[in-house]
Design goal:
Elements (H helix, E strand, L loop, with lengths): L6 H6 L12 E7 L3 E7 L16 E6 L2 E6 L3 E7 L2 E3 L16 E4 L8 E7 L3 E8 L17 E6 L2 E6 L3 E7 L2 E3 L14 E4 L37
Antiparallel strand pairs: 1-2, 1-3, 3-6, 4-5, 4-7, 8-9, 8-10, 10-13, 11-12, 11-14
């Protein structure tokens, strides 16, 4: 693939296969907490309503990864779903516009290796940052500003976030060239953190697990005052 397709063409391409030998299976439920109508999928679904499910309110990914969308036909905000359980919308995003999903497809991961190039300007031009086999919770820490106007995904699949710490809207990057931020469905050239998408074919743990924040230590209570000595006569 010499050039990345535009967003509508790419999403409609129906990428239902990952690397050689990859398998995909997801179980979707109509309501939160794995309740309501249940449906199993092993290939893309452009509209869950057409399959008799009003919406998707919770998900179990048995093998993947997958990318889900808030609208039909792979439209609207997108969300990466790696192996695991997602009982409600807050488990797949912290940037809520809807509390349900309407379409989803397998996410293509072309190799176990990961390499990504970020560019400051459109057309793969300007200041450049290379990321190899690593997750970057803050581009600022690495001396790169939040303006990312084009991207080249050389190996693996990646997800970028608008804000540091893997927060905000998600943008998916499969193998190819993204010469303008519109190509990944963004309205502004802002990305502040990126991470690798894990594929069960190569990564047996299955999914990325965000580190749990270290709780603040409880203040040490003051030592009790020593008893007052009794007076002597």
């Amino acid at each position: 693939m010499s050039e990345q397709q535009g967003a509508p063409e790419q999403l409609a391409a129906g990428k239902s296969q990952g690397g050689a030998g990859a398998t995909y299976k997801v179980v979707v439920f109509e309501f939160e907490n794995f309740c309501g109508k249940k449906m199993e999928l092993s290939a893309e679904c452009k509209n869950v309503i057409e399959k008799g499910c009003e919406k998707v309110g919770s998900i179990i990914v048995e093998s993947g990864p997958w990318v889900a969308f808030e609208r039909q036909a792979f439209g609207g905000e997108q969300f990466v779903l790696e192996k695991g359980e997602y009982p409600r919308w807050s488990t797949w995003t912290n940037s809520q516009t809807n509390n349900y999903l309407l379409s989803l497809r397998p996410l293509k991961v072309d190799s176990a290796d990961h390499k990504l190039h970020l560019f400051e300007n459109p057309g793969l031009a300007g200041r450049k940052m290379e990321i190899v086999d690593d997750d970057v919770p803050s581009l600022w820490v690495h001396g790169f500003q939040d303006r990312v106007a084009s991207i080249k995904a050389t190996n693996g699949a990646w997800v970028g976030y608008m804000f540091p710490g893997y927060r905000g809207r998600q943008y998916i990057f499969e193998h190819g060239d993204y010469k303008h931020w519109n190509d990944w469905g963004a309205s502004t050239p802002q990305i502040q953190s990126v991470r690798r998408v894990r594929d069960m074919q190569w990564h047996k743990r299955g999914c990325f697990i965000a580190p749990t924040p270290t709780p603040a230590p409880n203040p040490t209570p003051p030592a009790p005052a020593p008893p007052t000595a009794a007076g002597t006569s």
